[in-house]
Amino acid sequence: MFHSKEEAVLGYIAGKISSLILTTFAVSVIVFMLMQVLPGDPAAVILGINAQPETLAVLHKQLGFDMPLWQRYLVWISDFVRGDFGTSYTYSVPISELLLPRIMLTLPLAALSMLISVIIAIPVGVYAAATRGRLHDVVSMGIAQIGVAIPNFWLGLLLILLFALQLGWFPASGFSGWNNGFWVGMHSLFLPALALALPLASILARVTRSSVIETLNEDFIRTARAKGLSQKAALWRHAVPNALIPVITILGLQFSFLLAGTIIIENVFNLPGVGRLIFQAIIQRDLITVQSLITLLAVAIIVVNFAVDMIYGLVDPRLSKGVH
Question: Which ranges carry the ABC transmembrane type-1 domain (predicted)?
Fold first, then answer.
């Protein structure tokens, strides 16, 4: 039983940290075990179909395949925690060297997608809530429903046809690199970011609309209106800030779908990012690369959700008052 605000906050944070650690451990075990049951022999892929059994046996030992499963997991996870993700079977270089240049594309792509989705979703959702039941509300939510249903890879192809091939405003594929300038690089990422952002914006707009409508029915909004506050002022000063709390939560939960979407979108637009690296590693049976990168993405998703939980919990009035 908590007896103060500080104890309530510390207890909340401790519980979330414990959940983060346990979830991360569970994810690492699941990913490791899935990689072990996949068909195919990485050593045979590396050496080729004509490799001799003696050579395969030597490589198996070098890769650690002769160790018990639990020991292989402990060796891998201990190295992973220290930042050593292993050595790629295909390229024979540390996975971290493959990851670093690619993450400098994937992270800006994800951030730009988030930014675009928020810029679109919040105004649309708030305006739809303010005009609920009218034409704008019906049309915008109808478009949002279509946006939820359209796969992002198909949307990406449509954007390429319109803005790259027909209008010529953006490149159809590839990445110009950051060496040519920040805005040139962002120009290359805009179409794939838009393809990722529009389905997410559709979800956020619907959530924002529902949350704002629910907040507008609260007693404190009616009190503010009774004191002479205009409808517009009550909406933006009181309703919207309170309504955005669940929107932040949904935004954090959707981050996992955003990262998963980069794997497909980076292949559609031929972008040399983390998603494309994972796809290539799967094709090439580079299981240690797939194992480490998927675990790293899962950890990133867990950490983002943890941060969202912290933000949501710390602004929740019930937590701020403590539990008595």
Answer: 103-312
All structural domains of the chain, each given as residue ranges with its CATH number in brackets, are 95-283 (1.10.3720.10)
Q: How far apart are CA 23 and CA 15, in angstroms?
A: 12
Return the C-alpha torsion angle 53, 57, 62, 66, nearest 10. 150
pTM equals 0.76
Nearest to 262 by CA among 193, 184, 204: 193
Calpha distance 153→310 (Å, rounded): 33
Please identify which residue in the block is written with the tokens 């046996």: 57
| Gyration radius of the chain's alpha carbons | 24
What tokens appear for 110 in the block?
């994800």
How far apart are the C-alpha atoms of 136 and 132, rounded to whole Å? 8
CA distance 167 to 136: 29
Question: What are the tens digits of pLDDT across the range 253-307?
Answer: 777 777 777 888 888 888 888 888 888 888 877 888 888 888 888 888 888 878 7
Enter the DSSP assignment of 164: I
Out of 91-105, 146-160, 237-251, 260-274, least confident range: 237-251
Burial class (CB in 10 A: 0-12, 13-18, 19+), 49: exposed
Q: Contact at 8 Å (CB) between 111 and 282?
A: no
Q: What ranges in the chain are assigned the alpha helix state H? A: 5-37, 42-47, 53-63, 69-81, 95-130, 135-149, 152-159, 182-216, 219-226, 231-234, 240-268, 274-283, 287-315, 317-320
